[in-house]
Amino acid sequence: MSRLTKLNDMEHLMLNHWLDTHDIKLDHHTRNQFRDALAIARVFEKIHPEVVDLHSYIPRTSVAMMIENWKIFNIRVLTKLNICISQTDMERLAVGAEGAIESLLYDLMVADYSLMMRFDSDKSFNHFDNVD
User: Fold this and answer.
1) Where are the chain's structural domains?
2) Where is the CH-like domain (predicted)?
3) pLDDT less than 70: residues of the chain
């Protein structure tokens, strides 16, 4: 079953705000670049460098090789974030199917907020541990 679903209007608004926050313009050019998982890995590495290791990826131009990068991204990054995409999802991303990248970016946005909340709660917890 596909994890990449069509976003509703509210999800689109939330995603657009998150993209603006990170200076990401989702136009035809970036959508084309995002067909390769390396481009998405670079974006998420800037936001959460502890989650992504860019040494695992090679820039790809063929759909078959882009799917290989998506497999690596799925195993090394998405599973850490409790996101898992199917082979069909990877194929949709690699060919630039309509709405596929937006759906994945939305999932990454949710994961980003989750990681930020976890970091903030850890920081607060440690602060209270150090108070006498």
Assistant:
1) 9-129
2) 15-109
3) 1-2, 119-132
pLDDT of residue 120: 64
Q: Which amino acid is at 41?
A: A
d(CA 26, CA 18): 11
Token pair for 81? 């974030």
pLDDT value, residue 127: 47
CATH of segment(s) 9-129:
1.10.418.10
Please enumerate in sequence order all residues whose Cβ is within 8 A of that of 52, keeping only pairs 6 or more positions apart, or say none. 41, 44, 45, 76, 77
